[in-house]
Every structure is written in structure tokens, then in C-alpha cells.
């Protein structure tokens, strides 16, 4: 990693939220609806690199109508959380992995790489300044969701990588991603839409991937389902992932199976943490292609005993039903997903020892 001499300036918000307002938000945060008092901004200019790093009041940004991001979607983002432990300290989970993934996404979207130390410094600075916004340990599953992102800010309508880019970090106190607690989510298999093809941007965390999934999400909702599971673009046969979560299958002999990340799937940090935790919980793990036929037949025969989705926002959420044009299938739920969920949350909230060095104190 390059080292930088980027220095952050600080401009405090003259009108921060009152403690009463914050308490109101903490009582019912929802997901991604409320934001803290500050944000971090860093600019990048071609030939000059990263400059003008600073903490500033949270608020609207100025953008030229010709800004490249508004036309050609040259944009990437990350998602991670800060957790408050019982002793009041605040920790993030594997932020170095988010820094590395942001850099991989940047390469794919022809954006500049933000050095890891600057990424981590931006998180430290924002969370330290807005630490009162990190929900209480006693609140259960609440945390401060951090959203770093980077976009093409140059006003120019030609199609080429932007010569100016802006990195921003904002933070939002959040509760569970799915309202109503941990209840099984229903899944729609689209025969119309795919998310990513080989050589495309599926492995990058870019806004365009999510925009392209929205029509499929609407199709799912029109069929009474909550989320979409995308199949591969070439054969429409191999299970890839959900719009914002990776997927795991549990077989009756206690094996976890998750699709191989082969260029079209986002390599989730929760997914990778589960690969590590599984062994410690006495489960075998396999990364391999899994077909939709195997999913359907496995549930029908009892070979597959649970299916769950995983991601920073959703943590681990069991899948309870699968529907497609002309059919549906109920998916059993069980103990394995909940056991993994608990052991992950115990590490994140400091209730279990962090033997992997995953937690970084802020
Ligand atoms: N897949 C997609 C498409 C996502 O948006 C996310 C969320 O970030 C994930 C998977 C899970 O990744 P992570 O566990 O790093 O949050
Ligand atoms: C995350 O889990 O951090 C994501 O970005 C997924 C999104 C659906 C909120």
C-alpha cells in the first residue's frame, strides 16, 4: 500500500442534532434513514492524486449537472458497521477488507484507488467525531452503518474516466435490515433478468449493479416475494447471489455450501468470515457451483436442510421460500444459520473473543 501524507482538516457542524433527537432516532433507527452530524470528504484530481481531505458537516453536496457520475454511473461504494461493546468502546469489523474491496472496485470502474490508511483514517475520524451516534450495546442489533463511496465528479459529457473524483464517507445508525426481526425471507427466481455476466461488473460494488437489479426486485415484489436470487447469465442455471447478499446452503450432513466467486459475484466479507467460522463450529465448508436444480431437488429430498443469505446489512437471514414462474417451494429453517449468526454477532459485539484479529477499535 502506498503511504500518503494526507492530512484531514475538521469543520464541526454548528447545529448538530440534540441528544433528544438522537435518542428518538436510536429508539427506531430503521435502515439508512437517518445520518450523523458529519461526513468525510476527499478529492482526487488526475495528475495530482488525493487532496483536500476533511471532516465537514453532513449535508447536501454541490454537483454540476454534467458530472460524469450522473450520466455514466462511474461510482463505487462500500458498507461496514461500527459496533458498541458492553464497556462502551466502539469497534469496526474487518475494515481492511472493505478498503481492499473498494480498491478492487475502483480498478474495475477506472476510478483511483484510495490507500488503505486513508480509508481507515476516514472511518476513525468520522466515528470518533460522531461516536454518540453509535447505538448502545443494550439496543441489541443496532450499529452505526458506514457508507464510504466514490464518484466521478468531472463535468464532461465525453465517455472516458473522470479526471476529478470525490470520496465521501457518511454514517447512519441502523437496526435490522429486514423489519420484523429475524424471519425467513421469500425469494424470487427471475426468468427475465440476470445481475452480472463474466467480464462485467458483478464482482465490483458499483451502483450500476444495484440499479440493474431494481426491475428484478419489483418483479419479485409483484410475485409476493421479498428478494431476488440471481442465476448466471450464460446458462441461467447456476445460483449466484441476492441483490445485496451472498447465499449459503446447509446440507443434512452438516456441510455449508456457497457458490464459488468466479467474477460475477460480490465477494462478501460476511461470506468469507463464515467460511472461517464454520470450521470452528464443526461444520464442513465447500465453495463450488450449485445449480438451481440441485437447490430444488435438495430441498424436496431433505438433502438441503437450510438456506440463508448473508451480508453486512442483513447479517445472516434464513430464506423461507423459493418461487419462480409456475412454481414454488417452501424451504425448511433450522438451527445452523442461527448458530452461525450468533457466533458472528458475539464477535462483532465483543461478547466472544476475537481470535482472528477482525475487530479494530475506533
Ligand atoms: N452481495 C452483494 C450484491 C452485496 O451488495 C453485499 C453487501 O455488501 C453482499 C453480497 C455481502 O457483502 P458483505 O458481507 O461484504 O457485506
Ligand atoms: C451491505 O450489506 O452493506 C450492502 O451494501 C447491501 C445493501 C443491500 C444495503
Outline:
With 362 residues, the protein is α+β, with helices and mostly antiparallel strands.
Topology:
Elements: E1 8-10, H1 19-27, E2 38-45, E3 49-57, H2 68-72, E4 75-77, E5 80-84, E6 90-93, H3 95-108, H4 116-129, E7 143-152, E8 164-174, E9 185-189, H5 207-222, E10 227-231, E11 239-242, E12 246-251, E13 255-258, H6 269-280, E14 284-287, H7 292-301, E15 304-311, E16 315-324, E17 327-330, H8 335-348, E18 359-361
Parallel strand pairs: 1-3, 9-10, 9-16, 13-14
Antiparallel strand pairs: 2-3, 2-8, 4-7, 5-6, 5-7, 6-18, 7-8, 10-11, 12-13, 12-15, 15-16, 16-17
Bound molecules: pyridoxal-5'-phosphate and 2-OXO-4-methylpentanoic acid (COI).
Structural description of this entry:
The protein is 26% helix and 29% strand. The chain is built from eight helices and 18 strands. Strands 1, 2, 3, 4, 5, 6, 7, 8 and 18 form a nine-stranded mixed sheet that branches. β13 (255-258), α6 (269-280) and β14 form a beta-alpha-beta unit. The longest helix has 16 residues, at 207-222. The protein is globular and about 60 Å long. Bound molecules: pyridoxal-5'-phosphate and 2-OXO-4-methylpentanoic acid. 2-OXO-4-methylpentanoic acid (COI) is lined by residues 79, 244, 311-313.
Amino acid at each position: 500500500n502506498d503511504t500518503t501524507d494526507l492530512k484531514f482538516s475538521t469543520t464541526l457542524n454548528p447545529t448538530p442534532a440534540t441528544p433528544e433527537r438522537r435518542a428518538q432516532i436510536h429508539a427506531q433507527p430503521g435502515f439508512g434513514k437517518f445520518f450523523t452530524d458529519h461526513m468525510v470528504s476527499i478529492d482526487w484530481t488526475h495528475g495530482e492524486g488525493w487532496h483536500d481531505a476533511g471532516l465537514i458537516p453532513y449535508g447536501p453536496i454541490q454537483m454540476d449537472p454534467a458530472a460524469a457520475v450522473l450520466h455514466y454511473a462511474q461510482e463505487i461504494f462500500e458498507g461496514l458497521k461500527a459496533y458498541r461493546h458492553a464497556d462502551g468502546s466502539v469497534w469496526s469489523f474487518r475494515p481492511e477488507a472493505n478498503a481492499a474491496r473498494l480498491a478492487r472496485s475502483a480498478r474495475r470502474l477506472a476510478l483511483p484507488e484510495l490507500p488503505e490508511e486513508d480509508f481507515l483514517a476516514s472511518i476513525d475520524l468520522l466515528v470518533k467525531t460522531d461516536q454518540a451516534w453509535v447505538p448502545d450495546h443494550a439496543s441489541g442489533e443496532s450499529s452505526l452503518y458506514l457508507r464510504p463511496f466514490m464518484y466521478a465528479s468531472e463535468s464532461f459529457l465525453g465517455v472516458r474516466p473522470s479526471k476529478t473524483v470525490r470520496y465521501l464517507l457518511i454514517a447512519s445508525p441502523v437496526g435490522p435490515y429486514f423489519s420484523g426481526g429475524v424471519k425467513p425471507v421469500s425469494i424470487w427466481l427471475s426468468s427475465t433478468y440476470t445481475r452480472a455476466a463474466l467480464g462485467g461488473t458483478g464482482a465490483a460494488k458499483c451502483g450500476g449493479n444495484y440499479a440493474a437489479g431494481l426491475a428484478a426486485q419489483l418483479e419479485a415484489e409483484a410475485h409476493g416475494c421479498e428478494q431476488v436470487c440471481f442465476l448466471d447469465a450464460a446458462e441461467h442455471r447456476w445460483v449466484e447471489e441476492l441483490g445485496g447478499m451472498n447465499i449459503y446452503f446447509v446440507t443434512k450432513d452438516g456441510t455449508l455450501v456457497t457458490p464459488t466467486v468466479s467474477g460475477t459475484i460480490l465477494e462478501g466479507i460476511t461470506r468469507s468470515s463464515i467460511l472461517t467460522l464454520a470450521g470452528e463450529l464443526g461444520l464442513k465448508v465447500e465453495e463450488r457451483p450449485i445449480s438451481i436444480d440441485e437447490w430444488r431437488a435438495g430441498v424436496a429430498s431433505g438433502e438441503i436442510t437450510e438456506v440463508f443469505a448473508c451480508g453486512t446489512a442483513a447479517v445472516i437471514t434464513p430464506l423461507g421460500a423459493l418461487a419462480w414462474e409456475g412454481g414454488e417451494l417452501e424451504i425448511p429453517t433450522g438451527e445452523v444459520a442461527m448458530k452461525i449468526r450468533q457466533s458472528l454477532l458475539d464477535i462483532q459485539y465483543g461478547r466472544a473473543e476475537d481470535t482472528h484479529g477482525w475487530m479494530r477499535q475506533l
